Amino acid sequence: MPAHNHHDAPEHSSTQPPSGDDPTGQPSATQPVPAGYQKVETRDGVKIVRDAPVSFVRRELAMSANRQRLWQDHTGTTILPVSRLFGQTSVAPQSQLNITETWGHDAPLIIDIGVGHGESTFAGATAHPDKNFLAVEVYRPGLAKLLDRVDSENVTNIRMVEANAPEVLDHMVPEHAAAEVWVFFSDPWPKTRYHKRRLIQPKFLDRVARVLQIGGLIRLATDWSHYAMQMRDTLDAHPAFKNLHPSRLAGKTSPLTLARLHGTDDGTPLSEAEALDAIGGWAPRFETRPVTSFEAKAQRAGRYIFDLTYQRTD
Ligand SMILES: C[S@@+](CC[C@H](N)C(=O)[O-])C[C@H]1O[C@@H](n2cnc3c(N)ncnc32)[C@H](O)[C@@H]1O
């Protein structure tokens, strides 16, 4: 699982295979291009590549023998099978889930995106055994750790998919199937030149809007004030979402005011007037969201935590 300070990966143009992922497939000239991909001419012929940089860098996949066995035993059941045409974390268009068949019954679906070691999924699923949970992550050892807990504690309402989240939303999740989408501590990509790798962008919100039921929720948390601002701006500008906590914590008590006042992200404190966040809109901490290892690290570093909850409007 990458840490915040490991994001110095070289930039790749969209005509190259996605950073950290395996090379894309070789399409025939007539093969249709699925959502999220584009065809490009290369010296070696036409290739299908993602149409935007991915939000992750794939890291070593080492797992203990026990975890590898567990992974194999649960592949096809708790670990959902995925058809992959264009690379190891890709999702082919024919992968749409049948929710009732996949979980064995119909229940509100919560999709947890970029789960890391799965602490938030596990806490949510055990607090709400009456709901179905889908954990989405590209980092297999993280999912395997969650699987270990799921297996040893006989948790039956979690399914997992090892794949790129935008493609899971495009190709696996049916329209209006989800009650909630969670994105907690999404990689902040602090350097300006890598901001295009951030997950929370208008196009990603279009995907979330498609899979959420009307009235459904997207819950976000981050420890990075600049990213928190971008999340709030992008959600406020999106016609399918409304803030459930407009103006909350606006002014001196805003975590954004405090982060800017103390310069917690970049070591450059602003004056009171410059730091003031007059907009607010920060949500209370979501009840089942645990303090994960990522959040604990952010807290130790003195960073503020930002929660946002927006509702899918009709
Ligand atoms: C900073 S960690 C946060 C983990 C966890 N949500 C938490 O709160 O502790 C972000 C995780 O998102 C995963 N990730 C980033 N982009 C992703 C994508 N496009 N699809 C699936 N997982 C992704 C990374 O592999 C990483 O494990």
What is the rounded distance between the termini?
A: 36 Å
How many DSSP-defined strands?
A: 9
Query: Could you state the order of secondary-structure elements as H and E?
Result: EEHHEHEHEHEHEHEHHHE
Q: How is the CATH topology named?
A: Rossmann fold
Number of H/I helices: 10
Biggest beta sheet summary: 7 strands, mixed
Ligands bound, unique: S-adenosylmethionine
What is the level 1 CATH name?
Alpha Beta
Annotated CATH architecture = 3-Layer(aba) Sandwich
Average pLDDT confidence is 90
Please list the strands of the largest sheet in the order they lie side by side.
5-4-3-6-7-9-8
Gyration radius, to the nearest Å? Answer: 20 Å
Structural class of the helices, strands and pairings?
A: alpha/beta
Look at the structure and name the CATH superfamily.
Answer: Vaccinia Virus protein VP39
Number of domains: 1
Pfam families: Methyltransf_4
Family: Belongs to the class I-like SAM-binding methyltransferase superfamily. TrmB family.
Catalytic activity: guanosine(46) in tRNA + S-adenosyl-L-methionine = N(7)-methylguanosine(46) in tRNA + S-adenosyl-L-homocysteine
Function: Catalyzes the formation of N(7)-methylguanine at position 46 (m7G46) in tRNA.
Description:
The protein is an alpha/beta fold. The chain has one domain: Vaccinia Virus protein VP39 (Rossmann fold), CATH 3.40.50. Helix content is 28%, strand content 18%. The chain has helices at 65-74, 99-103, 119-127, 140-152, 165-171, 202-211, 225-237, 255-262, 272-275, 293-300, and strands spanning 37-42, 45-50, 109-113, 132-137, 158-162, 178-184, 212-222, 241-243, 306-312. The strands form two sheets. It has a seven-stranded mixed sheet with strand order 5-4-3-6-7-9-8, with helices on both faces. A two-stranded antiparallel ribbon has the order 1-2. Helix 4 links the parallel strand 4 (132-137) and strand 5 (158-162). Helix 1 (65-74) crosses helix 4. The radius of gyration is 20 Å and the shape is globular. S-adenosylmethionine binds at residues 1-2, 54-56, 114-116, 120, 136-139, 142, 164-165, 184-187, 199, 292, 294.
